[in-house]
Design goal:
This protein is an alpha+beta fold. 21% of the residues lie in helices and 37% in strands. The longest helix has 14 residues. It is globular and about 45 Å long.
């Protein structure tokens, strides 16, 4: 059985045109869900936390799940519809825009980090072979939960 890919990278949460905050984002990919990638952000960056901005100890990471193909496409050209948009940015950066009812987050990544992560996912499940790893029975069971 193929193993999952997980990598923690540095990123910047863009707070305004002149301010940003450093954060670590955990990227993950599992062959059991071959079409998707996950980005986990530290709980303290949640948009729906308490009014005072504090996060209880042990707060859970905020996880976004979206298509691996979207992340790949967004490295070259603007891509995305709906809640997740990915686009190249100045220098060797890639911007990921995440839209939720609570607000929008714009996160800047080093493109090299994202390319390395995607390369590692392709070693586990090559692009175009995702269908060989899909488990229709498991997917249906999860939908019916």
């Amino acid at each position: 059985m193929h193993t999952a890919v997980e990598e923690t990278v540095r990123a910047r949460l863009m707070l305004s045109s002149h301010r940003s905050a450093r954060l670590h984002v955990t990227l993950s990919y599992a062959p059991a869900d071959p079409l998707a990638v996950r980005m986990a952000f530290p709980a303290e960056f949640s948009l729906d936390g308490p009014e005072d901005g504090t996060v209880p100890d042990g707060g859970e990471d905020i996880v976004w799940v979206f298509a691996r193909r979207l992340l790949t496409a967004g490295l070259e050209l603007p891509a995305g519809v709906g809640d997740v948009h990915v686009r190249p940015a100045a220098g060797r950066h890639t911007m990921v825009e995440l839209r939720a009812p609570e607000g929008t987050a714009l996160v800047r990544f080093d493109s090299t980090d994202l390319r390395r992560f995607l390369w590692r996912t392709r070693l586990v499940v090559p692009e175009g072979e995702e269908h060989l790893h899909l488990d229709a029975d498991r997917a249906l069971a999860e939908l019916l939960r």
